[in-house]
Please model this.
Amino acid sequence: MNKTRNVTAPLMIREPKTRLHYCKKCSFKTKSIFGIKNHLKLYHTTTLLTELFSCMGNSPEPYRCTICNFQTPLMVNFKNHETTNMSSYVCDECNFKTDSVLVFSEHARKHVSENEVRRYGCQQCLYAAKRRDHLKRHILAKHTSSDNIKWLHCQRCQFKAKHQTHLKRHVLVKHSQLQNKRFECEHCEYKTKRNDALKSHVLAKHATSEDIRWHQCEHCSYRTKWRSDLARHVLLNHLPMKDISWFKCEQCPFETKWRGGLKAHKKLRHTADEDIKWIRCEQCPYKAKKSSYLKKHVLEKHTAVKDINWFKCDYCEFKAKQRCNLKQHVVARHTAPENVKWFECELCVYSTKWKGNLEKHQQAKHSSLI
Model:
């Protein structure tokens, strides 16, 4: 019998009892032996491989593969190597195949229709997810106060994160010996420190329409390459005001639909200059409060025309250095008035296509009333 759960039903998540693995080089501990492995790789990479695993006992004679030259001091790695090289998972729906059961499971989700997908529903709002870990992440982001979050702290600086993946990414970029490694695009000269950033670049710049897995809005004809953009679109255009969880500033009337927007607002409006961690340009005295500001500055002031990855309009010859500028162009030049989302002033008849223009209008004309 196929078990399904109503999206409004409570979700019970039981944590299995697991013995902890301790690192003998520092105070780190984890439930996962792979967590120990990743920790050692990130924080103790200056020692020899045999010494790295000393926290799990004396280094034994390595396990050697009889088919290839692979060898490892850990049985779990050896078993994983055997499984990876001796088996292959092939999709019945398409030509996709992989040696990883986890990758195959993720791929198989693409062939399941929306009405057949099991949903995990949030008890505090209308959010529902296909995956339990996505629901846990949602609850942590939207319904958990900062005091109740079990923060993960970096051992080398003041950085802290809610998710292990975020901490791992931080350590890799900022503190690892791999920080100088670059993932290079096969199609152009683009380079990045992060593999996920390279994947996003290839999807944005080099993927054909047929290769793209489009995310389609259920309410209108909007579609996008990015799942995050679809979520933002639904929140902006189709979610009733009463169902929106607003993030409100404690120091002024400002409120926003985005947690990141509130964080940026506080940093820009309510943080003293001496308390701000300024991001400085390496080529001139310019400094910025936000990395996006610095990125825009470098693009406009220090990037040669031949090195710019232009965003090109599908309807005309227009091209822009930034995606947001291309979006503004499309709305201004190629979008019918009836399809434009107008921002209307509540104090007069003024309306505009741009939220920033509405804010400027209210500051100029109605500053005494707001």
The CA atoms of residues 348 and 366 lie 9 Å apart. The first strand starts at residue 21 and ends at 22.
